[in-house]
Structure formats: C-alpha cells, structure tokens
Design a protein that fits this description.
Elements: H1 5-12, H2 16-23, H3 31-44, H4 50-57, E1 62-68, H5 69-74, H6 76-90, E2 96-102, H7 114-117, E3 123-127, H8 132-138, E4 145-148, E5 158-162, H9 164-177, E6 183-188, H10 193-208, E7 218-221, H11 227-239, E8 246-249, H12 252-264, E9 274-276, E10 293-295, H13 298-313, E11 322-325, E12 328-330
Parallel strand pairs: 1-2, 1-3, 3-4, 4-5, 5-11, 6-7, 6-8, 8-9
Antiparallel strand pairs: 10-12
Helix pairs in contact: 1-2, 1-3, 2-4, 6-13, 9-10, 11-12
C-alpha cells in the first residue's frame, strides 16, 4: 500500500499543510515539529509527491519545450538531441518537460500552446527559430523563457547559443588549409542568427586569406534547410557553371544532399570536390564518404538550457544570462588536400 501525505499527517498529529511545509523546508515550522514530522516520514518510508512539494510553492513543476513543426520533423537529428538533453537534465531537478510543436508559419491569430494558456508550466525553453508572432504573444505572460540556438532581435534574453562564428571560421579555414580557394557556401534562412554567423565566418576566412569573395559562390535557398535543399543548391551551382572545388554547407542535412547531387553528376568526393557540413549528426558517418563537419554539443545544449531555466526559476541567476557553447572540427573523408 502506498503511503500518502495524509498518513504522515495523521501519525505525526499535524495537518497535511504542515507536512508540506516540512518537505519544503519552510522556516515557519518549529524545530520540534519538523523533527517529529521528519521522523514519521522516515519511519513510514514516505516519498513526497510533486503535489506535496508544490502545495507551498504554488508551482506546477513543469517546463514547457517549444519547437516549430519543421524543426522537429525536417532536422530531427539536431533538435531531438537538444530535447533529449533537456529531458535528461530535468531528471536531476524537480521538473517534468512538456513538448509542444507549433506551425512554422505561426501567427498572432494562432493559439498558444495549451500549457501556456492553462498556466501549467513554470518556465519555457524555445529551441530554434520561432515566428515573431509567438514571441510577441508570450510577452503578455510573465513566464521565464530560455532560447536555444536562436536569439530574438528585440530585448535581452536568456539563451544557450552555438559559437557559430568560430564554427564557420574553423570549417572554411580547414578547406583553405587543404588548398581550396574556390569555396561555395550553401544555406537557407540567412536571417537566422546561427546561419548568419556561419556565413560571416565564411567571409572572414576568405578575407583573412586574401581570397576574393564572389556572390556566384553563394546559394541561399528559401526552402527548409534539408537534404533536398542541399541537393538543389549544388545543382544550381553546376547549372550556372560556377567553378568550385569545395562546398561549405550551413548544416549537415544540406551537406548530405550536396554529396548526392555531386555523385549524380559524376563528380568524386573529395577528389573533385571537398564538402564540409555543420552540426555532426549521426547520419554523417553513414554517408559515403563520411562527412567532415563542425561538431555541436547538442545534448549538452539541452542540458544547459534546463539548468539555466532551473536557476532562473530558483532566482539564482538573472533571466538574461547567455551561454555560448564551443564547437570543434571533426575531420572525415569528405575533404582532402588538393
């Protein structure tokens, strides 16, 4: 039979509210009462439920996690890992994670996630770029928010971000060190802060090494960043007769699509064209050849986001703290010296 808070209260001859105050270490309870209640808890082997813990704090014990549908479905290897990191870390804190997906074209006329409307979360983690309509509607609530891999243009926010600028520099410098000077850059959604910084890293390395930047080497797609858009971007380079010996794809999904397009056009990788991606998803090692990339600590990002929202809710840090996650180069067989 499961021991309840009522069982503890009855045996200790106190109210259930008093038991909850003891569980939450409230100073209003006398030392003697605290000792008696704690002794009863130990004797009965009572495990406090979240309801008992939250009776005094008035908190839900939940953290909301918001993704757009295209992020979860099209780039699942990336954002799924971030979500898992948050879920794993939540087990070390008194929180449950509630996932909600919103449309990529969310507008202010659309409904907010139910956990916001019902006030059933204490804080929210938002991963990836989300429409401004969502952000504007959430401002009407006082719920703390931590952004992951995205930073809204307006306001000062708590965020866990990738060192995208340094990642772009590492990727392109690797290609330059391999002897390449005709380096293409393929991407989508250049307004996304992460992609914008990777592009800036690309241009920074070209300038540093005295390589002339050329618009013809850049393809920016208006499609979702995925394998199909990577394929189409390289197809466009080939159709325009652009001379290039290397490709820096803004993420690994596009890099995988680029590999397939080059193969379909009888080009060898890396002998004819070297390719480097960004993110280090599991598919990279299943492609022939395995893809050189920039490794992003995705699970750690989710973990840091959960730690940060927990600290904000515990009022240990301000809700404007920013964490920059380091990246590193992972060399595989899709790049080589020329």
């Amino acid at each position: 039979m499961r021991i309840t808070i009522k069982d503890v209260a009855k045996k200790a001859n106190v109210s259930t509210a008093t038991v909850s105050l003891v569980i939450n270490k409230n100073r209003r309870i006398s030392r003697e009462t605290r000792r008696r209640v704690q002794k009863t808890i130990d004797e009965l082997g009572y495990q406090p439920s979240r309801t008992a813990r939250d009776l005094v704090s008035r908190k839900s014990g939940n953290v909301g996690f918001i993704l757009t549908e295209d992020h979860f479905l099209k780039t699942e290897p990336f954002y799924t890992q971030i979500f898992l990191g948050a879920e794993f870390e939540a087990r070390q804190h008194p929180y449950y994670v509630l996932l909600s997906m919103i449309p990529a074209d969310y507008s202010e006329h659309d409904m907010l996630p139910r956990f916001v409307l019902e006030n059933s979360v204490d804080g929210i983690i938002i991963a990836g770029k989300v429409p401004g309509g969502l952000i504007r509607k959430l401002r009407k609530y006082s719920t703390p928010i931590v952004y992951v891999d995205y930073y809204p243009d307006e306001g000062d926010h708590a965020a866990v971000l990738i060192d995208n600028l340094n990642g772009g520099i590492l990727a392109v410098q690797h290609l330059v060190d391999c002897g390449h000077s005709k380096i293409a850059f393929i991407c989508g959604d250049i307004e996304h802060p992460s992609i914008r910084d990777r592009f800036l890293g690309y241009k920074t390395v070209l300038d540093k090494n005295g390589i002339q930047f050329s618009d013809e080497h850049v393809v920016i797609t208006d499609k979702v960043i995925c394998q199909e858009s990577g394929y189409d971007s390289v197809k466009k380079l080939l159709k325009n007769n652009t001379k290039f010996t290397a490709v820096f794809a803004c993420n690994d999904a596009m890099a995988i699509g680029a590999v397939q397009c080059l193969k379909d056009n009888a080009l060898r990788i890396p002998e004819d064209v070297s390719i480097i991606g960004f993110d280090d998803i599991q598919m990279d090692v299943m492609v022939d050849p395995p893809i050189t990339t920039i490794q992003v600590p995705k699970v750690d990002m989710g973990s840091e986001a959960m730690k940060l929202i927990s600290e904000i809710l515990g009022r240990k840090v301000q809700n404007t703290r920013k964490i920059l996650m380091p990246v590193s180069l992972v060399e595989r067989q899709s790049t080589c010296k020329v």
